[in-house]
Design brief:
alpha/beta; Rossmann fold; Rna Polymerase Sigma Factor, Chain: A; 3 domains; 7-stranded parallel β-sheet; 15% strand; globular; binds nicotinamide-adenine-dinucleotide; binds magnesium ion
């Protein structure tokens, strides 16, 4: 018998009830793909989408979901019509998405995009569910408060973001006192080698061309600006209770090493894998066991070389701003996220240049701080109010930022 304890697989064999928030998105799609491969092991409690009724109804029919919710309140009848003749209950509007999260599924994938995912994620957390968290914006918006509430409710948060899932796996090699720092890797995005002047003028089509990952539109643009890595620095701080000084970013264009943890003996433990979100999602779905993942087998001999660079804060100022917001605290990360969401929407709408995304975030943070608005977040409602007010602030600053060239 081995001296290393082997976990038994009984838990993995029991049928598990599952809810997927944001089922029609990129993460939702990868999650449904994994669930599809073992339909006898999972029962779908609820599925949600923003507006895509057809895709949601197709999934509900395929998986026999008990409840579906579309966030757009005007689409209830359309959803009901699409599911006529089934036993699936339908809901519409923000409260219906929250209800989907509140229904009794053991495991919830939180994959709504943006701070809109906060209330549904909290509904799952508050009933003590196991929550696979892909939606980083909700953590960045709520700050420490989200994890405190999860701890109070006895919820289990499983990091689904690839870098944080890597850290979660590597952290098992030591304890908190032995941890020196974590390193989250970044591909560098499509503009890794571009000059500031070229980044300033980048088009939407160029920003949407991610070299390694296939993802939703918002996160793909965030990857091009490296705002995504900024959000992930804050996400790591919230998830694992780390300071800004304990989190390093390393540019690694091949996206094979996803995260590393350095311990006091100078051992650095890394997690590797092909850039396929189904691997971290499979880890969350199987946890504490391991299930079979469909990603390509990692062939390091074929890849040949793994390379690394320091991040360039001057060409990617959004990353620097994330560290500053994290150090500032008291709602600054909420403002960082809210302003970025406004900026990305404005860039997609053709209202601002790519380079103005970070300028709008910086201007919103500066205006927020100089107005004396920083205050500790005591509740989810506080975070939601800061998010709302910061969006308004960013929207009022937008016209002058749009006019100003770098
Ligand atoms: P996506 O845009 O492809 O999908 C978003 C999902 O959320 C869709 O189902 C959409 O219908 C739903 N949605 C959007 N706005 C909503 C609203 N206001 N109310 C209710 N539902 C809404 O996004 P994605 O790429 O799947 O990303 C989802 C989340 O996961 C993001 O927070 C992202 O940062 C994070 N994430 C994504 C990846 C990835 O590879 N795609 C990797 C790591 C983390
Ligand atoms: Mg990531």
């Amino acid at each position: 018998m081995s001296a290393v304890p082997l976990r038994n697989n009984k838990a993995a064999l029991a049928v598990r009830s599952v809810t997927v928030l944001g089922a029609t998105g990129s993460i939702g799609d990868s999650t449904m793909d994994l669930l599809r491969a073992s339909k006898d092991r999972y029962r779908i409690e609820a599925l949600t989408a923003h507006t895509n009724v057809k895709a949601l109804a197709d999934l509900a029919r395929e998986f026999g979901a008990r409840y579906v919710a579309v966030a757009d309140p005007g689409r209830l009848q359309e959803l009901k019509d699409a599911l006529a003749g089934t036993r699936t209950e339908c809901g519409a509007g923000e409260s219906a998405v929250v209800e989907a999260a509140a229904r009794p599924a053991e495991w919830v994938m939180a994959a709504v995009s943006g701070a809109a995912g906060l209330k549904p994620a909290l509904a799952a957390v508050d009933r003590g569910a196991t929550v696979a968290l892909a939606n980083k914006e909700c953590l960045v918006c709520a700050g420490d408060f989200f994890m405190q509430r999860a701890a109070q409710a006895g919820a289990c948060i499983l990091p689904a973001d690839s870098e944080h899932n890597a850290l979660f796996q590597a952290l098992a090699s030591g304890n908190r006192e032995e941890l020196v720092r974590v390193i989250i890797t970044a591909s560098g995005g499509p503009f890794r080698t571009w000059s500031s002047a070229d980044i300033e003028q980048a088009t939407l089509a160029q920003a949407l061309k991610h070299p390694n990952w296939s993802m939703g539109q918002k996160i793909t643009i965030d990857s091009a600006s490296m705002m995504n890595k900024g959000l992930e620095v804050i996400e790591a701080a919230c998830l694992f209770g780390l300071t800004a000084e304990e989190i390093d970013v390393l540019v690694h264009p091949q996206s094979i090493i996803h995260g590393m943890v350095e311990f006091s003996d100078r051992s650095v433990v890394a997690q590797l894998g092909a850039p396929d979100m189904r691997t971290p999602i499979a880890h969350c779905l199987g946890w504490p066991d391991r299930i079979i993942g469909p990603a390509a087998k990692l062939d390091l001999a074929k890849i040949g070389q793994l390379t690394f660079e320091a991040p360039d804060f001057s060409r990617f100022p959004g990353l620097k701003l994330a560290y500053e917001a994290l150090r500032t605290g008291r709602g600054a990360t909420t403002v960082y996220n809210a302003a970025n969401e406004v900026a990305v929407a404005a860039f997609i709408a053709g209202k601002i240049r790519f380079g103005a995304i970070a300028r709008l975030v910086e201007a919103t943070l500066e205006a927020w701080i100089s107005a004396g608005n920083l205050a500790p977040l005591a509740s989810a409602d506080d975070a939601i109010a800061v998010d709302y007010n910061a969006r308004n602030k960013a929207a009022t600053l937008l016209p002058q930022i749009a006019l100003k060239a770098s």
